[in-house]
Write a structure and sequence with these properties.
Blueprint lengths: L1 H26 L25 H33 L3 H13 L1 H12 L3 H26 L14 H20 L4 H20 L9
Helix pairs in contact: 1-5, 2-3, 4-5, 6-7
């Protein structure tokens, strides 16, 4: 039953992600344009010729394959290192792999924040999280029927669900406020450290009754 529910939810989440792209890039793209940093930044680039569509798609495919290969090597290496150091797979997946995998995005978000482009910084963070939740995870559920030892489901342990709920509610409060400060950023880092400490010291299943 859980597997069938996960499959249905995966299809709905992928549809929601596609509709979100249509909403933000096509039908209501004006809602996501920056008001203070408009076209003045791109006037000098207007005459630059873009890549041909064939070259762009080919480059994207090649880079995607290379990134997938490097990611597979990295994840397997980190898993072996975690086992030798006694680190739980949950900590490795939620913290180490997530931090290293999102290093480039975090660097761009930090750079945008330093330039007072908070809208870009927040959109990068939320866009990455939404892509994982609404597209990557559901696609993995569907692909698991064809690749892997057994089908994957979306039934997570209660601790992960609780942390995701806290992160979602916190994100709503921060983004709806429309303003930020260094103190709010420090509190967000503290919340992340609390999640990391919980995963490291109290891994999934450690509190199960004997």
């Amino acid at each position: 039953m859980a597997q069938k529910l996960s499959t249905g939810l995966a299809i709905l989440l992928i549809c929601a992600y596609g509709l979100g792209l249509l909403f933000s890039l096509k039908t209501h793209k004006e809602l996501f344009e920056s008001e203070d940093h408009g076209g003045s930044e791109h006037h000098g680039e207007a005459g630059d010729a873009g890549w041909p569509i064939g070259l762009a798609i080919g480059t994207l495919v090649v880079v995607t394959v290379l990134v997938a290969l490097v990611s597979e090597i990295f994840v397997s290496s980190v898993q072996k290192a975690g086992e030798s150091l006694g680190i739980s797979p949950a900590f490795v997946g939620f913290i180490i792999v997530a931090l290293v995998g999102a290093a480039a995005e975090m660097a761009v978000a930090f750079s945008a924040a330093r330039k007072n482009r908070l809208d870009m910084s927040v959109s990068i963070a939320l866009g990455s999280a939404s892509q994982i939740a609404l597209f990557v995870a559901p696609v993995l559920v569907l692909l698991s029927y064809f690749v892997g030892p057994k089908p994957m489901d979306l039934q997570f342990w209660p601790g992960a669900v609780t942390m995701m709920m806290i992160a979602t509610v916190t994100t709503c409060f921060i983004t709806n406020g429309g303003r930020s400060s260094w103190f709010i950023g420090a509190l967000l880092i503290f919340i992340y450290i609390i999640f990391a400490m919980t995963l490291y010291m109290v891994p999934p299943g450690s509190l199960a009754p004997v």
